[in-house]
Amino acid sequence: MAQAQTHRGAMRARVPGQDLGARGRDRGLPGEHMRRMGAFAGQAILQALLDLLYPPRCEVCDTLGPEAFCAQCLAQVLPHEPPECRLCGALLPRSPVTRDILAECAQTRRHYDGARSVGIHTATLRTAVLQFKFHNRRRLQGPLARLLADRLEVEQEPPQGLPLRQVDCLVPVPLHPRRRQWRGFDQALLLSTELSRLTGLPLVIGLARTRPTTPQIRLTPQEREDNVRGAFAAVGHAVAGKRILLIDDVYTTGATVSQAARAAKDGGAAAAYVLTVSRPAPPWHPAALALEPGEA
User: Fold this and answer.
1) N or C: which end of the chain has fewer CB within 10 A?
2) From CA 130, how far away is CA 265, in angstroms rounded?
3) Mean pLDDT, all residues of the chain
4) 169 contacts 204 by C-beta, under 8 angstroms
5) CA 244 – CA 68 distance, rounded (Å)
6) Domain 79-289 has CATH 3.40.50
7) pTM over 0.85
8) What's the pLDDT tens digit per position in 55-113?
9) d(C-alpha 40, C-alpha 203), whole Å
């Protein structure tokens, strides 16, 4: 079925876009008008054939339906909700003696000014992120970006929350060109592009990856920190004087986004906040206890 969906996605990519811009406007020539009408009719027929041969399915649970992230799967997303660390956004246990900041954040310098995530990296949200990132399920770009937009809307105003809705622009955390070429796309850029469309916040390519790094997934926290240190640089004066919102798919230890924020501030950014789709559950959380060995 995955092969059929990939074939379907490839065929969809060859279907001409409907927005023809200035060239697509009717210039009053009957023959040209009829030609365009015929092209649109042909596209509709081709789309109907594709839907018949490869019916649209949820990219997460594979259930037949038009949505890439169906309602049943969305309902299983575990949202990141207070209490959270006011700096890194990690979930905090509900306790009368719980502080509003992790001891690690109080003792360790973070180069960003605050981070938040949509939900816990488990269940359907984890599957959606992995399908999008590693299996080229780009139909998930829209649903995941909408989750990011919703997270922006519910963030509390300072001092309880972060001023995420007052940022000047969105800046994707970039892949190195070699990794982007291997993967075929940059997931943070796709998410940022759609989030910009949904929110009206400008998208700025403000950072570049200056060297390739080892995939972080099997590294210890210290190895992650060492791996990405100095791996980013600001692009010219693109972020100078701006309050930026860094966009990425997963916040694990925060090493990558912290180094990205550091580079942005070296480039003159006034503030650097972080928003990701997901982050792992803390060890005490039931979602962490439910993970299979080696699952992340």
Assistant:
1) N
2) 30
3) 86
4) yes
5) 29
6) yes
7) no
8) 899 999 999 999 999 999 999 999 998 889 999 999 998 876 667 888 888 888 899 99
9) 31
Q: Structure tokens of 76? A: 């299983």
CB 204 within 8 A of CB 181: no
Whole-number Å distance between alpha carbons of 291 and 232? 32
Q: What are the extents of the domains in the chain?
A: 2-53, 79-289
Inform me whether the pLDDT recorded for 256 exceeds 90. yes
Enter the DSSP assignment of 245. Answer: E
User: Which position has the token pair 């009719």?
Assistant: 41
Please, are residues 89 and 80 in contact by the beta-carbon 8 Å criterion? yes
Q: Which residues contact 149 (CB under 8 A, 6 or more apart)?
A: 195, 198, 199
Say if CB 248 and CB 256 are below 8 A apart.
yes
14: confidence class by pLDDT, cuts 50, 70, 90: very low
**Span 122-145, average pLDDT:** 96
Which residues 6+ apart lie within 8 Å of 20 measured at CB?
Answer: 36
